[in-house]
Amino acid sequence: MSEARPLSRRMPRGPRDTRTWYRDVDPMSQVDPALVGFVAARAGHGVLDVGCGLGGYSRALADRGFEVRAFDVVEEYVEAARGLGVRAERYDGRRLPVGDACVDTVILLEVLEHLEDPGALLREARRVARRNVLVSVPNCSQSFAPAPIEFTHMLELDHRQFFTAGSLRALLEGAFDGCEVIESHPVDETIAHLILPRALMSLYVRLRRAGVIRPRFFEHLLAEAHVAGGPRP
């Protein structure tokens, strides 16, 4: 699984609640090309985007030739996704209104951290997926102590889960027949882009590619969970 690259995105300011936070932003401005690439490299042709939000990822995947269907619990987000041409529906957050093993891949991008019981949604995702389930969540594996530093994403008002690589792996292994978890989106590289002058940034990139410099801190966890009997990429 290749390492995703960081992306700077313009966001509203203030405390976050994901049921209202994204209402006034451009749906496509929230799409991280690295996450699209992660899904595109791992997903089957048919994709179910659960917790689709404004529908930007569904649209981006459809533009790559995937057959995408999307669900969210917020009606305004479903309407925004439909405005992008996405086949989106509102659901109750419990049972997906589709049949067993009806789709190749289920994607849960920045969803599980908002749930009181993420295992319930993972079991539902397994029910409907033939091949695999792809997940991204904020990474709580690292500590910046003694510096009082925290990712702004961790300050969302409706975060319920705070995953480390180990805890995410344990959760997925409890619901699936195997999984792979990696740390992604190196924070070190993002900071370097912000503070280094161009000449030093070029040197940093060369040293990074040569393996002389290795990132220590990562913003996201990406995971692929396998469904028994499904094809492996």
Summary tags:
Rossmann fold, 233 residues, alpha/beta, disordered N terminus
Structural class from helices and strands? alpha/beta
Would you state the CATH class? Answer: Alpha Beta
Distance between the termini: 11 Å
Spatial order of strands in the largest sheet: 3-2-1-4-5-7-6
Uncertain ranges: 1-13
The dominant shape is: globular
Radius of gyration: 18 Å
Q: How big a fraction of the residues is strand?
A: 15-25%
Query: CATH superfamily membership, which one?
Result: Vaccinia Virus protein VP39
Instruction: Quickly give the CATH architecture.
Output: 3-Layer(aba) Sandwich
Number of strands: 7
Mean pLDDT: 83
| CATH topology heading | Rossmann fold
Biggest β-sheet: count, sense, barrel? 7 strands, mixed
Total helix count?
7
Structural domain count: 1
